[in-house]
Target: DNA-binding MarR family transcriptional regulator
Amino acid sequence: MSRGEDRDDEAPTAVAAWESLFRAQVAVLRRLGRDPIWGEVSFREYDVLYTLRIRPGCCARLRELAASSLLTQPSLSRMVERLEERSLVERRPVPDDARGTLVVLTDAGMRLVTTVGRRHAEAIDAYVGEALEPSERAALRTLTEKLRAAQGQIPDLARG
Model:
């Protein structure tokens, strides 16, 4: 029996579990995208600013931002340029690496991500918090963190 097959009628396949998780995420993301919470920043721009906010020193190399984003590196580079033009981020050289560049959250970027973040958290609390009991939210977090953490130990499929 392969990993994707049902072991019994009660146990969903990995594919069914993934599809359910993915579709739930899409449904919530679509609602968030329609919400008037973003102000002067798009959902994707907020994601980049938030990622910088939670990093040590509120900065990251472009490739580090790309690793946590759904954007391609060229799209992310253009977004960083636009955010820099709006003084929400700035680029700085990496100490001890003449070729490296850090993207750094500015004070204006910090104020914006904090303001939008409060509204974003309220929306998440409504859409997720009202749908799940506290124990279910805890279980969801445990499962999604386990799934994400395991990816480094699972080999890529060899395609011939």
Summary: Strands lie at 59-61, 89-94, 97-105. The two ends are 22 Å apart (CA to CA). Residues 107-129 form the longest helix (23 residues). Helices lie at 14-34, 43-54, 62-67, 73-85, 107-129, 134-150.
